[in-house]
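User: quick one
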Amino acid sequence: MAFDDNRLSYLNRLAGKRYFMLGDEACAYGAIYAGCDFIAGYPITPASEIAELLARELPRAGGICIQMEDELASIAAIIGASWTGARTMTATSGPGFSLMQENLGYAVMTETPCVVVDVQRSGPSTGQATKPAQGDMMQARWGTHGDHNIIALSPNSGQECLDLMLECFNLADEYRTPVILLMDGEIGHIRESVLMPDPEQITHKTRKAARPGEDVFGGDDLVPGMVHYGAGRNIHVTGSTHKANGMRDVTTPEVHDALIRRIYAKIDQNREKIVRVEADTDPRGPARIGVISYGASSRPARGAVLAARSEGIAVDFLRLITIWPFARTQVAEFAKDLDIILVPEMNLGQMSREIERFVDCRVQPVSKIGGIPHTIGQIHRAIREAV
Amino acid sequence: MKTEFRFVAFGGQGMILAGVIFGEGAINDGKNAVQSQSYGPESRGGAARAEVIIADEAIDYPMVLEADYLVALSQPGYDKHAAEIKQGATVIIDEDLVTAENNPRAGAFIRLPFTKTADALGQRIVTNLVMLGSVCAIADIIKKDALLEAVKSNVPSKFLELNVTAFNQGYELGRQARQ
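Assistant: Done. Structure below.
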């Protein structure tokens, strides 16, 4: 996919410039670089600035922004628009993300590429509405019902909000699936320096198109090609169990089995291609203590690892960039020679439990809830106590 | 080197914009900066706080724990944060808005007439720019030109001259206080 002239000239005006902006704003610019054509959204703290910026800027770059009546309609709109061939997204926070879960399942079942940004805030319910948290890690994984896989990425800086949006849109098209950018209110609401890339350096993956007569919901490949609305072919898109040609069949066990196993496998079998982590092993050699973190928590975690190393404590550090599918191979490899892994996260141990499933050593959550991120000192103390 | 600034005031005094401009000025000057903010649901009258960390290295923790500079334009803001400063920190208060004895942890305690200066310009709304000018001169971490560039990109163009005048008068106050 190439940029049209309008988008290219818009982005050429930004290229190479450095701005001091919110993580939310960087995410919005990432969407424009990713070739997003359409955003439908409903305001919610701390995600509102994403749609706010896109409402202003996306039309200038040749795209469309609609404020919907609620979150249910927002995700429904982007699913429909995606079937016209548009790159589509919505942005919300935990409560809105909860409202989107039903249609998120519809996007999974109909294999509709789209991007959902969740800027996590403190819950459950209205909780501490203006305070950050990382409480939706498992909502992203299992929020919608039924067997499914999902892709979710987590940025830890303004720059990465922009960069990972590009990746989200590419993964959505490549695997014909909804993809979630799991931000948190901390990263969304701090301002940092963000460099606008050169549009010529951006790679867009192209959605595979179904050949004439080819099935749109099955066939030889794990990821079937799509036929867009208006392309001249009649297709049936349904959230009910369907055959490879899209027609409903909710009674034949083999049809459901084949469909759901394929939708599950297209992400599961490409796990190693999808997963990205950032490993920083102690250069002075074998550490007994490891720290695994992600998103906003990974910043004080890194600071604490460096502080501990400066005192002579050997510590390895791993940052999860891809949250789902889970980096099970990379985490198992990281844990091989460790006695203990500390997991700083702004929840009561959601990813700690996932890590525990794939390692032999002890896993200890370093939980922080209440709306204020971990300090470097808090994680540093946890490392000292683990010695 | 890492320097942490905390700006506290009531909502409506422009502290958050001041924080944004201060951080952007640092970026213009080739430094790393992170700005964060905290405010109540009301746009005026509640507590407002802006924090800026400026460093040569990457900034791991984006919030201020103990400030190197505490700048206070409200009494409750000062009272709440007076103890959360580094030993030897610089405290700067608006002398007409904050009443305080010398802070025992402060290395320097500076009282300046931010609001009065803005009032003399006929526009209390530029109090934040007077304050920024003073902080620029006192801290001497961001070049004046780099900060003025950030002022230009963040205030409406028809009020630019007024804002730059306020900044310059604040800068002069800060320069004298530093001597």
